[in-house]
């Protein structure tokens, strides 16, 4: 049996956390391939090393003195090395980093050093081989992850070693330049490694005992989810449940490898199993709730819209031409609404509005900002009548004004749009009606 284990930044924030991780790995000989993140926050006011690196590099790029910032980053690693009692020096590594920063090697290179250095420490601590992710994980010139090349080279490379540490979050272009995944991307590296070695399980260790029914930062101590399907999880992680990166399921899903989310601070807890399919029913009608703030709704009205063939295409073209992706498009007989990310849209809004007028000739275009989207997800919802009704009566009782409803045809999820300021209340109301009343 082979297990691939990824440890998040919270699990590797200090020497004390490293020791817990060491115990977990040593307690099971099948934990052969380890993917570490960069050191995360030691407490809620702390800063993640990745954020320190971004800030330090921004100073370097602006031609400012960045020595003190780099020194603070070095101190984080030295504290870990000392706490573990390792005979290891990162002096040379930091000289190279300083030189690269001066030569403006780019923020991707800068951010990647967080996992790179942590990987070197982890390999020394465990006595495992260190495999630099830049030599085994590849991106094409367009910046897209090159799955085929990676799989070939990574699986060949890992066949040559019994046990290895592969830092998360980054890889390289053909020419060797470092490129990172998006934030939280070490989860993706773990999944890629698990796929490449055809692992029996991909364990993703974090600071919560698995996926919880709702975000613990909004709901106090929500219950955990024992088993969840890849599809349900994708909906939840895409909509803001940050435990697992939304793209981390693809490499393991292809190989049918289950993911087990575990807690470094409570290693005996079973955590959550993420599987292709299951006959296990979830404890509640819903499996989970997640949501994100910061959306805009562009409402487009045109009389007799329903009879105009091609109207929807023209509307979406106005967004496509401006490089904006859309989230949801609920529509009525004479109205159509396009939900977009506010931060992507804000600079281009007037260009989009004029393109809408030029392409689709609407009667009216109106923009609403500061909206939140909430996903209520559950494989059990399909067979349960009245789920939507319960959601809306709960929201009405909580005085939350529902601005949009969208139910996917798979009936796996219901998406609700509310104003940003109603976000927490709406999540609490939905949680109460489905979970609290049954607890
Ligand atoms: N539904 C959820 N279940 C569990 N945790 C959640 C959920 N939604 C959001 N979170 C947050 O995700 C955090 C874990 O993700 P992350 O910070 O990326 O961990 P790591 O540093 O281990 O990669 C938890 O501490 C919790 O605050
Ligand atoms: N360190 C990177 C990548 C990552 O996945 O981190 P974490 O496992 O702590 O979420 C980040 O902060 O984005």
UniProtKB/TrEMBL annotation:
Its EC number is 2.7.2.4. InterPro entries: AceGlu_kinase-like_sf, ACT-like_dom_sf, ACT_Aspartokinase, ACT_dom, Asp/Glu/Uridylate_kinase, Asp_kin_monofn, Asp_kinase, Aspartate_kinase_CS. It is an enzyme of class 2 (transferase). PROSITE patterns: ACT, ASPARTOKINASE. One of its GO terms (molecular function) is aspartate kinase activity. Pfam families: AA_kinase (PF00696), ACT_9 (PF22468). The keyword Membrane does not apply. Keywords: Amino-acid biosynthesis, ATP-binding, Diaminopimelate biosynthesis, Kinase, Lysine biosynthesis, Nucleotide-binding, Transferase. Coiled coil: none annotated. Residues 376-439 form the ACT domain. Pathway: Amino-acid biosynthesis; L-threonine biosynthesis; L-threonine from L-aspartate: step 1/5; Amino-acid biosynthesis; L-methionine biosynthesis via de novo pathway; L-homoserine from L-aspartate: step 1/3; Amino-acid biosynthesis; L-lysine biosynthesis via DAP pathway; (S)-tetrahydrodipicolinate from L-aspartate: step 1/4. Transmembrane segments: none annotated. It catalyses: L-aspartate + ATP = 4-phospho-L-aspartate + ADP. Belongs to the aspartokinase family. Catalyzes the phosphorylation of the beta-carboxyl group of aspartic acid with ATP to yield 4-phospho-L-aspartate, which is involved in the branched biosynthetic pathway leading to the biosynthesis of amino acids threonine, isoleucine and methionine. PANTHER family: ASPARTATE KINASE, ASPARTOKINASE 3. This is Aspartokinase. The lineage of its organism: Bacteria, Bacillati, Bacillota, Clostridia, Lachnospirales.
């Amino acid at each position: 049996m082979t297990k691939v284990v990824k440890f998040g930044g919270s699990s590797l924030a200090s020497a004390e956390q490293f020791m817990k991780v060491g115990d977990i790995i040593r307690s099971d000989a099948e934990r052969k391939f380890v993917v570490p993140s960069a050191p995360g926050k030691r407490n809620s006011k702390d800063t993640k090393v990745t954020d320190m690196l971004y800030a330090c590099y921004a100073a370097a790029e602006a031609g400012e003195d960045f020595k003190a910032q780099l020194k603070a980053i070095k101190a984080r690693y030295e504290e870990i090395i000392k706490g573990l009692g390792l005979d290891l020096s990162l002096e040379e590594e930091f000289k190279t980093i300083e030189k690269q920063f001066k030569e403006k090697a780019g923020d991707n290179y800068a951010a990647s050093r967080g996992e790179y250095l942590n990987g070197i420490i982890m390999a020394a601590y465990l006595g495992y081989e260190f495999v630099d992710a830049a030599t085994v994980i590849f991106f094409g010139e367009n910046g897209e992850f090159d799955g085929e090349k990676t799989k070939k080279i990574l699986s060949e490379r890992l066949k040559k070693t019994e046990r290895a540490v592969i830092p998360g979050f980054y890889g390289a272009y053909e020419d060797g330049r470092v490129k990172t995944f998006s934030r939280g991307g070490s989860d993706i590296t773990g999944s890629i490694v698990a796929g490449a070695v055809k692992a029996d399980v991909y364990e993703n260790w974090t600071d919560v005992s698995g996926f919880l029914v709702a975000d613990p930062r909004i709901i106090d101590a929500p219950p955990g989810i024992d088993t969840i399907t890849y599809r349900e999880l994708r909906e939840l992680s895409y909509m803001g449940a940050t435990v697992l990166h939304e793209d981390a399921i693809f490499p393991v899903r292809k190989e049918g490898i289950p993911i087990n989310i575990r807690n470094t601070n409570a290693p005996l807890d079973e955590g959550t199993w993420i599987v292709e399919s299951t006959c296990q029913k979830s404890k509640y009608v819903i499996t989970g709730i997640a949501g994100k703030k910061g959306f805009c709704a562009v409402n487009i009205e045109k009389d007799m819209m329903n009879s105009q063939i091609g109207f929807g295409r023209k509307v979406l073209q106005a967004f496509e031409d401006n490089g904006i992706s859309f989230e949801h498009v609920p529509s009525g007989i004479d109205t159509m609404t396009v939900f977009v990310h506010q931060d992507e849209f804000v600079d281009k809004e007037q260009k989009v509005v004029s393109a809408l007028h030029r392409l689709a000739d609407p009667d009216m275009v109106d923009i609403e900002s500061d909206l939140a989207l909430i996903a209520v997800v559950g494989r059990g919802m399909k067979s349960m009548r009245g789920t939507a009704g319960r959601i809306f009566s709960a929201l009405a009782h909580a005085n939350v004004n529902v601005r949009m409803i969208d139910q996917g045809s798979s009936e796996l999820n219901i998406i609700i749009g509310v104003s940003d300021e109603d976000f927490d209340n709406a999540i609490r109301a939905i949680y109460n009606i489905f979970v609290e009343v049954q607890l």
